[in-house]
């Protein structure tokens, strides 16, 4: 995969995150975002990125240096405790399920892939939001079983319920298909079929299929905006982001659709941005959006070595 395409893909997620931060948790249609803004929900400066990006940068850093799962937890702890991977050395937003997993690792001494909460009530989007770099690493991996196993492991570090595992499988497999040139409409037919067939040996995960079924069809574009929920529940985030990607004619449009849905706007826009960047690899983000991101040096410190290692 070419370096420019990788960079576009990574920054699409970060821009989506930063555009959603000021309106996170706001009610739909109580605001209108058209460009990068600041303050709002978290009273952070314009261009601030949140835990979505911070934990994504930690994953990139770990992958760049061939780190273990235990090493990645060290990076997650540094983020949570000391503001590593943040724009201003300050952690202002971390999900409770991710925080619980980090405590499980360092207080309860659990194995890395057993730290995630297995409860049905822990099906937030805190794994989905940080996994995009894994799709870049696995873009040339032809073995589906290998891709799914790695996706499961990285997800289970913070979220172990089968519903979230399935969401991660589908998220990364849609990315894999589009990054390899498959049109979204084709992927909406092929990816669900491929994943469902692979789940014959994972009955607990397969049992969660009905939660996602509404979105796993080319007819997703026929769903109305009022049918789309944009909460932090993993199924809602997945569906909202995929709807935005399917409806949009550009990466920028997908991000704006997502940010203006309300609810967990930053994470929905992060996921929608990465999917849209995979769908439209020749497009560029608006330069003013990317230029507005805080601490460009810190972003480059993690993004550039990652691209150098994994590009073609």
TrEMBL record:
Its cofactor is Mg(2+). GO terms for molecular function: hydrolase activity; metal ion binding. Mg(2+) binds at residues 50-52, 264, 266-267. It comes from the Bacteria. Keywords: Hydrolase, Magnesium, Metal-binding. Binds 2 magnesium ions per subunit. Belongs to the ADP-ribosylglycohydrolase family. PANTHER family: ADP-RIBOSYLGLYCOHYDROLASE, ADP-RIBOSYLHYDROLASE ARH3. This is ADP-ribosylglycohydrolase. It comes from Lactiplantibacillus mudanjiangensis.
